[in-house]
Write a structure and sequence with these properties.
It is built from four helices and no strands. It is elongated and about 50 Å long.
Length: 109
């Protein structure tokens, strides 16, 4: 067995962990954008979605339970990632940081 063939399963684990982390970040950013991005004239569907998902106070911010969802749901998922894939995630992010193209993905973080 060659060295590269032996390294593939480990790389697959790190790739999956990094992919899960990047998906977590994208979903969290999208969720926060859904809750907070203000448009001059928000479409009715967007206003209803915000109301249903996060609640809306008179000043346009989420209700207290909406804040809990926005903070605790992503935090619980990140905790899961760190508890179960800590080593793979650290190795994958370090491998990604060694590549110039990797900084395009890590830059927004």
């Amino acid at each position: 067995m060659t060295r590269t063939a032996a390294a593939r399963p480990a790389e697959a684990g790190t790739d999956f962990a990094v992919g899960a982390f990047l998906a977590w970040f994208a979903v969290t950013a999208g969720w926060w954008a859904l809750a907070f991005v203000r448009l001059p004239a928000a479409p009715e569907w967007l206003s209803r979605t915000r109301e249903i998902c996060f609640g809306t106070t008179p000043d346009g911010l989420p209700e207290p339970w909406g804040w809990m969802l926005l903070v605790l749901a992503p935090l619980s998922m990140l905790t899961f990632l760190l508890l179960f894939w800590h080593a793979e995630l650290a190795a994958g992010l370090a491998r990604l940081a060694r590549r110039p193209a990797g900084w395009l993905l890590l830059g927004p973080l």
